[in-house]
Hints:
The protein is of the alpha+beta class. About 35% of the residues lie in helices and about 15% in strands. Pfam families: YlxR.
Amino acid sequence: MTRGGRVKDQDGPERRCIVSGEVQPKGGLIRFVVGPGAALVPDIEGKLPGRGIYVSADRALIAQAAKKKLFARAAREPVTVPADLDALVHDLQTRRVIGLLALARKAGQAVAGYEKVKDWLRSEEAVVLIQATDGSERGKTKLKAPPGEDGFVGCLLAGEIGLAFGREHVIHAALAAGGLSARVVEEAAKLARLRGQDGGHCGATRED
């Protein structure tokens, strides 16, 4: 992952955004399909059957695609687009990241709480530091993210991280190496773009 949530592997599958016309790796795009009854469905997990229609992970572009009826043009048939599609995609992507983080916790690949995170960072078990956007900046600077472009995720609120750990609020969390951790980072980078955080707030190392 690069800054702004773009996928590093340029040899992977690429698709064209129907709004900007830009061709980019699938990891930076939201997939949509036309479901039963000609209803447009955001395919957040990228697993639904049907021909994919792709828009960059950008709420303004998603809203523009809906307003200008670009989904119908791409599908070559009339489609029913949900109201406030960009907000729906944002909410679904948020749930996706929280769900993956919860799975990582259950698999023993994630911990929460300042002391546990500090221990994981010290022992180099942590490969990703997660910190809440609404946490104290002074407190957050006491922990240094692991090196590398994928070493820091900072696009989630404390309440959202808390949901993944069964708590009300979590400011600090960490991920160990593993498939689930990589998926959390990738999906969080996409969420960061949807939240307009293209400056390395997700999927990139935080500068101290």
